[in-house]
TrEMBL record:
<feature type="binding site">
    <location>
        <position position="381"/>
    </location>
    <ligand>
        <name>S-adenosyl-L-methionine</name>
    </ligand>
</feature>
<protein>
    <submittedName>
        <fullName>16S rRNA (Cytosine967-C5)-methyltransferase</fullName>
        <ecNumber>2.1.1.176</ecNumber>
    </submittedName>
</protein>
<dbReference type="InterPro" id="IPR001678">
    <property type="entry name" value="MeTrfase_RsmB-F_NOP2_dom"/>
</dbReference>
<feature type="compositionally biased region" description="Basic and acidic residues">
    <location>
        <begin position="18"/>
        <end position="27"/>
    </location>
</feature>
<dbReference type="Pfam" id="PF01029">
    <property type="entry name" value="NusB"/>
</dbReference>
<dbReference type="InterPro" id="IPR035926">
    <property type="entry name" value="NusB-like_sf"/>
</dbReference>
<dbReference type="GO" id="GO:0001510">
    <property type="term" value="P:RNA methylation"/>
</dbReference>
<dbReference type="InterPro" id="IPR049560">
    <property type="entry name" value="MeTrfase_RsmB-F_NOP2_cat"/>
</dbReference>
<feature type="domain" description="SAM-dependent MTase RsmB/NOP-type">
    <location>
        <begin position="207"/>
        <end position="514"/>
    </location>
</feature>
<keyword id="KW-0808">Transferase</keyword>
<keyword id="KW-0489">Methyltransferase</keyword>
<dbReference type="InterPro" id="IPR006027">
    <property type="entry name" value="NusB_RsmB_TIM44"/>
</dbReference>
<feature type="binding site">
    <location>
        <position position="362"/>
    </location>
    <ligand>
        <name>S-adenosyl-L-methionine</name>
    </ligand>
</feature>
<dbReference type="GO" id="GO:0006355">
    <property type="term" value="P:regulation of DNA-templated transcription"/>
</dbReference>
<dbReference type="InterPro" id="IPR029063">
    <property type="entry name" value="SAM-dependent_MTases_sf"/>
</dbReference>
<feature type="compositionally biased region" description="Basic and acidic residues">
    <location>
        <begin position="1"/>
        <end position="10"/>
    </location>
</feature>
<dbReference type="InterPro" id="IPR023267">
    <property type="entry name" value="RCMT"/>
</dbReference>
Length: 519
């Protein structure tokens, strides 16, 4: 195997403040192999082969890289170092595909769409090594050509060799400069520089404004999406602990209680994770679940029945169920898709069985019988575009479409409506998305405010800040318009951000109903 880079996994030493490799100076001697592609070795190293296999599954079968990669790492028996290299290569090539394709297009004499898909995948892997990893150019080139020879065939290896040589003639920064020098539209420039589809750049700008932040943060937000997120763990309260995690190098979480950061490789090897008492969950998700569980209900009222309306695959449900169990409450975790409902059951397995049940209804059917307001606390973690969790799913940004957002908003509104009818008077509903898009967040709550005169927004910032351990999070959008009694509302929402809170971009609004619908 030839990485030729002793410090290749040391992010701190090879990245500058913007999270990029400090590239070689222009004109630095590149020591390419003198051998023609046909004379080079015909075997692929295991780490690059693994990355290639994942990229193929993503392009060919619409697979999810975060599911295929661990399987492929195990199948190819990669050691920890190779697994780290394969992960960085796979995720980097997928995230930055937009930028690499633009560069490759300048180095290929035909449209990229005319190339065979496996060849294009190999070129993207080569481009990532050359432009963003501390892999010497000769190693990036030789090993990618060997990969092509062993996996695709002799034919395309000459083309790959020639194209990657061209790519290697400039640094990443120089390519970006060339690609953007005549462009005046900021969204287009950021789209290339930070490798996001243009519509997502625009959506993020809109989102920052809608949630009261400065648009000048846009570049930081886009850059944060390209950083590999640290795995967050949570010990289910009263059920698990983090002793094993800390023993194996995990660090104490700074955002929420009972949490940890884990950077020591495959979490699947932890007994506590396998037993389901410690779970992988973004710190933002933990925070919104805890905020719902801890927000005070009017004194003297019941706090026994909790509902997670959209529970699959069960991340928040397991934390809510553990908290419910500690307090003698009961969680109904609802998920209509059968295979996801199975995942919810699995995720609840470590929580005492008398504290939860799983239902498989269409969430919109809850609260249909308005005389039965059953629930004291309801989580509406609505199906959403997932624009706030792009850093965790490297290929996702290229699959999503602007129309996805519009398609989901009707369902989001209907689910929130159902929750507002199923919650008892004085109970609390949390509306949550892992998207900051205003159409999925602010607009849905505004719409509910208009439709439900009995709805009152709670002080969401206060509730969230009381469960987190860092500096208070600034409130996001303030709901102060849209209905007759609006002036009496003092509440607000919370929008978490990867570049500010180091969490997924979770949106949360807590609300209650003060009386029956008709009032
Ligand atoms: C954002 S995910 C929920 C994530 C989950 N709360 C967690 O923390 O693991 C949204 C879920 O809503 C489910 N869903 C879709 N349509 C639904 C409906 N009509 N009623 C209830 N849930 C629905 C989806 O299948 C998906 O599992």
């Amino acid at each position: 195997m030839n990485y030729d880079g002793a410090a290749r996994h040391d992010h701190s030493s090879r990245r500058n403040a913007a999270g990029r490799e400090r590239n070689r100076g222009f004109g630095e001697q590149r020591n390419f192999s003198a051998a023609a592609p046909s004379q080079r070795k015909r075997t692929a190293d295991k780490a690059r082969l693994t990355a290639f296999q994942v990229l193929r599954a993503v392009s060919d079968q619409d697979a999810y890289a975060n599911l295929v990669l661990p399987r492929q790492i195990r199948e190819n028996r990669l050691d920890k170092q190779d697994a780290g290299f394969a992960t960085e290569l796979t995720y980097g090539a997928l995230r930055e595909q937009g930028l690499y394709d633009a560069v490759l297009q300048l180095c290929v004499d035909r449209p990229l769409s005319a190339l065979d898909a496996p060849v294009l995948d190999a070129l993207r892997l080569g481009a990532h090594q050359l432009l963003s990893m501390r892999v010497p150019a000769h190693a990036a080139l030789d090993e990618t050509v060997s990969l092509v020879r062993s996996q695709i065939g002799m034919g395309p290896s000459g083309l790959v060799n020639a194209v990657l040589r061209k790519v290697s003639r400039q640094t990443r920064e120089e390519w970006i400069q060339q690609l953007t020098e005549d462009v005046t539209d900021e969204s287009k420039i950021f789209s290339t520089t930070y490798s996001h589809p243009e519509w997502i750049v625009r959506a993020f700008r809109q989102s920052l404004v809608a949630h009261g932040r400065d648009v000048s943060e846009l570049e930081k937000l886009l850059a944060a999406d390209n950083d590999a997120p640290v795995v967050n763990l949570v010990a289910l309260p009263g059920i698990g602990d983090l002793d094993e995690v800390f023993k194996l190098g995990g660090r104490k979480g700074k955002f929420v209680p009972d949490s940890a950061y884990y950077e020591s490789g495959d979490v699947g090897r932890l007994n506590s994770v396998r037993a389901g008492v410690v779970r992988v969950q973004d710190a933002g998700s933990q925070a919104v679940a805890r905020a719902l569980a801890d927000v005070e209900l009017p004194s003297g009222t019941s706090d026994e029945e909790w509902l997670d309306l959209c529970a699959g695959p069960g991340g928040k449900a397991s934390l809510l169920a553990a908290l419910a169990a500690q307090r003698g409450a009961f969680l109904t975790a609802n998920e209509p898709q059968p295979h996801r409902a199975d995942l919810v059951e699995d995720s609840l397995g470590a929580v005492p069985q008398d504290a939860w049940q799983v239902t498989d209804m269409d969430g919109r059917d809850y609260g249909k019988d308005q005389t039965e307001r059953l629930f004291d606390r309801i989580m509406v973690d609505a199906p959403c575009s997932g624009l706030g969790a792009l850093r965790r799913r490297p290929e996702a940004r290229w699959r999503k479409k602007l129309t996805d957002v519009a398609e989901l908003t009707v369902l989001q509104s209907e689910l929130l409506d159902a929750a507002l009818k199923a919650v008892r008077i004085g109970g609390v509903v949390a509306y949550v998305t892992c998207s900051p898009h205003p159409a999925e967040t602010v607009a849905i709550v505004e719409d509910a405010i208009k439709k439900h005169p009995n709805l009152r927004i709670l002080d969401t910032a206060a509730a969230l800040n009381s469960v987190i351990m860092t500096a208070p999070t600034a409130p996001g959008h303030t709901f102060n318009s849209g209905a007759a009694s609006a002036s009496t509302w003092t509440g607000n929402s919370i929008q978490l951000w990867p570049h500010v809170n180091k969490t997924d971009a979770m949106f949360l609004t807590l609300m209650t109903v003060d009386g029956p619908e008709e009032s």
